[in-house]
Amino acid sequence: MTGTLSEVAQACWADLAAAAASREEPFRTPVLSTAGLDGAPEARTVVLRAVDPARRALTLFTDSRSAKWAELAADPRAGLVFYDPARQVQLRLAGTAALHRDDETARAYWLAAPPAVRLPYLCQPGPGAALDAAGPGIAPPVFAGPLGEDTLAPGAAFFAVIVLSIHRLQWLSLRRMGNMAARFDWDERGALTAGWIVP
Ligand SMILES: Cc1cc2nc3c(=O)[nH]c(=O)nc-3n(C[C@H](O)[C@H](O)[C@H](O)COP(=O)(O)O)c2cc1C
Fold first, then answer.
1. Helices marked H in the chain — which ranges?
2. Measured from the CB, is residue 104 less than 6 Å from ligand 1?
């Protein structure tokens, strides 16, 4: 069953919302692409943290010392690719990033995040920096005691939130009887242009 274009779009947003709510969902860990500071493409896996279908907004967490943060600050255009291997469905999204650090949005997500999500932000120096030996880049005393508020608090300085406003969604479904694809584009006022496309 494929349904109408409108049903396809609705199902895509429902699947995205489900992925933000559950670790088991296949769309939970999309690949985020950005333009590198030298203009070359960059891509990496991220966790989908929140979805607001009405605003077409997707929320991700990252470290403000990471390369992707600097890249999005320089060029907020971003792509997200999701793949569900069981259903053989791919979603390709394009959007514009709003960056939140040391503001109300970042603080609210930080306070709501469980310790395991906050832990990586304790690394020193930041993601991508060279280490003398393999390891998490987090000083061992952290792992010796409980992960209480006092231990995790320094990570708040680096915790950052990316909110992507989506303006394009491409749906692709691989099927033995013939693949299918559709494209949805929203203009600045939110008006939608939708159509079936050759897969
Ligand atoms: C399953 C998985 C989930 C990940 N989730 C995130 C995430 O939510 N945020 C993030 O910044 N990095 C996440 N990473 C790490 C990134 O893929 C990447 O290695 C790191 O953020 C540095 O990327 P950058 O140098 O391009 O900024 C995840 C990696 C994996 C394998």
1. 5-21, 67-74, 104-112, 115-118, 141-144, 149-152
2. no
22-51: pLDDT as tens digits: 999 999 999 999 999 999 999 999 999 999
The minimum-distance atom of ligand 1 relative to the CA of 44 is 17
Tens of pLDDT, residues 111-128: 999 999 999 999 999 999
The two three-digit tokens of residue 136, written as one number: 């998490």
Residue ranges of alpha helices (H) inside 22-135 are 67-74, 104-112, 115-118
pTM of the shown model: 0.97
**pLDDT for 145 beyond 80:** no
Q: How far is the CA of 127 from the centre of ligand 1 (A)?
A: 9
Domains and CATH numbers, the chain: 5-114+159-197 (2.30.110.10)
Q: Is 67 a pocket residue for ligand 1 (Cβ < 6 Å)?
A: yes
Between the CA of 79 and the centroid of ligand 1 the distance, in Å, is 15
